[in-house]
Amino acid sequence: MAFDLDMIKGVYARMEQRITAAREVVGRPLTQAEKILYSHLWEGAPTQIYERGKAYVDFAPDRVAMQDATAQMALLQFMQAGRPQVAVPSTVHCDHLIQAEVGAEKDLEIAKNRNKEVYDFLSSVSDKYGLGFWKPGAGIIHQVVLENYAFPGGMMIGTDSHTPNAGGLGMIAIGVGGADASDVMSGLAWELKMPRLIGVKLTGKLSGWTSAKDVILWVAGQLTVKGGTGYVVEYFGPGAESLSCTGKGTICNMGAEIGATTSLFTYDEKMAEYLRSTERADIADAADEVREHLRADEEVYANPEEYYDQVIELDLTTLEPHINGPFTPDLAWPLSKFAKAVVENEWPERLEVGLIGSCTNSSYEDMTRAASVAGQASKKNIKAKAEFTITPGSEMVRFTAERDGILDTFEKIGGVVLANACGPCIGQWARHMDDPSRKNSIITSFNRNFAKRNDGNISTHAFVASPEIVTAFAIAGDLTFNPMTDKLMNEDGEEVMLDEPRGIELPIQGFDVEDAGYQSPAEDGSQVQVKVDPESDRLQLLDPFKAWEGTDLKGLKLLIKAKGKCTTDHISMAGPWLKYRGHLDNISNNMLIGAINYYNDKSNSVKNQLTGEYGEVPATQRIYKAQGIGTVVIGDENYGEGSSREHAAMEPRFLGVRAIIVKSFARIHETNLKKQGMLGLTFADPADYNKVLEDDTIDILGLTEFAPGKQLTIKLHHADGTSEEFPVNHTYNQQQIEWFKAGSALNIIRASVGA
């Protein structure tokens, strides 16, 4: 039986009328993404066309999903809004705070004790305000959502950048910051710039060692980490229909790595089969009745170049396995060329750890394909030469895989099964290593491989591949190994080869689970008490940010000029800092500690203009704040790439940074800055980045006439007494300007309900 079936039927009931109206307004056939977007307008039936890439649009999402690290701040903000219950179905998933160290059972026990205060807070808030609560060990948010909540044609927002995983079930699912989630849970519209569209036509069929993961690894290589920014990526064609539902989810999940707003697939039989297999036949039946509305119009498929802003074609028959990395998920290497790249670039050839799982690749099919490789090794008397870890995506996947002997197959070659959680994928990994400074290589079936991402070690070269390729590499212990062509020496001194992997899309005996880990909210939450200890170092109630003072900002100091890639991991690291996700003051001590200072090529080392001394970024900023001095952060291209974590915007806001000025922003981070009342500005001329000097004092002029499309002016006062000015751009609309003036979007919500 599906969750929220009446809501889903309501979405389907109004689709035809809204899509028909949209088709008339737009004046042409519609893509799948357009049908879903136009049928979820806050205004109801569309009355005007919204220009892609320009028009800001208010939407009405069907549901909200939050993982435990981001849910803390999202729910702390929601509590400030003064609403008695969430306005749309919403869930919390405890998957981020479990550290991988020795194995599932012990790691989960430690996490429950270590994070009891946070889990109790999230559980009680969920009880009080009507949210579904998935306990620690229940699984990774995106796999649990795919199994329980995603539905074709729906719209969901989630406080995690890999929320688009639900596109594997034909859903518009978009990663957002907690402030956006708070708005929707409070019953307000959710704003998004109407995305542009990339169509990816898939033909042919995968075979052998190639899997769905290789599709998105190839696409990432084509589009790069920012090539999808501002776009919805829509997959279609006979090749798309041949992919399993969870394989589609893998592709949509990693669309976050190209900066895409979201990705999705057309509703088809593979999705219907998955819905029925996960006890949601009622949703499959309902979707079948509106099937024509869950796919693009036929004219679109016939002439895609006329309807998408960009079209890419891929014949799956020609695709070979890919390995992406190191240090960026868009450095794509076909398997046949990877060994040469390893040698030529002098990357460590010896593989130390292979890790499979994560929200991207932890389905039953993923487990079976990897297990088919591990099983061969066991039968051919080969043990894994590298450490090998396995992370099931949910308790349902884990329980079913254990029942079917899959986990035992991994353990026979030395594999260690970790808890159903994010673990090493997000830096929650207590890695056992003799010398953390030593250059080393790991390979994962995860989604991101930024420096320090998995184990906190800048010397770790992390590569991304499919679970079956990772398993083969872990068995070989060598990055120059090619499982399609190379032989291995077994324990008996015999040369053997690994056969092509075989997988099972859906369990033959069906899925099974004893306790999925779900807790439904209290029927009446009005009497539930949410307690936050004032002395807690993990949870802290929020105070409203101050409103804009009504003047231009003058006398600001440069805090840091970040050089090169500056992701949300650089701005607000995960790993051990996850424990402070509900305590804004404490977590602000990691603000920008990973960013590289342009002037000395060091991280966490900036000049204090008041003393002339160098110090840590957060400590230096706290000194400025104590003196009532605002600051500016300067950044490079695609600033804020990566996770949806709004802490990367809230920390600078809390500590007194007034503006972030960069060459370009990643979408989610720019929105998060706006929501928190920050100025997110871009150089009109990227070369002006070079004009900013280490000892500059900075004015931001034109704020008293702040208006959509109107440039602001930056005036630099150099230490030698000279000054210069240049224009900066912004993308604020009138509503977002009001957020800035009020001090944050939340301040406007609070005022509207008299809280």
UniProtKB/TrEMBL annotation:
What catalytic reaction does the record list? citrate = D-threo-isocitrate
Task: Keywords in alphabetical order, please.
Answer: Iron, Iron-sulfur, Lyase, Metal-binding, Transit peptide, Tricarboxylic acid cycle
InterPro entries under this entry?
Acnase/IPM_dHydase_lsu_aba_1/3, Acoase/IPM_deHydtase_lsu_aba, Aconitase/3IPM_dehydase_swvl, Aconitase/IPM_isomerase, Aconitase_4Fe-4S_BS, Aconitase_4Fe-4S_dom, Aconitase_dom2, Aconitase_mito-like
The record's EC number reads 4.2.1.3
Q: In which pathway does it act?
A: Carbohydrate metabolism; tricarboxylic acid cycle; isocitrate from oxaloacetate: step 2/2
Annotated Aconitase/3-isopropylmalate dehydratase large subunit alpha/beta/alpha domain ranges read 34-477
Molecular function per GO = 4 iron, 4 sulfur cluster binding; aconitate hydratase activity; metal ion binding
Per the record, the GO terms for biological process are: tricarboxylic acid cycle
This protein's name: Aconitate hydratase A
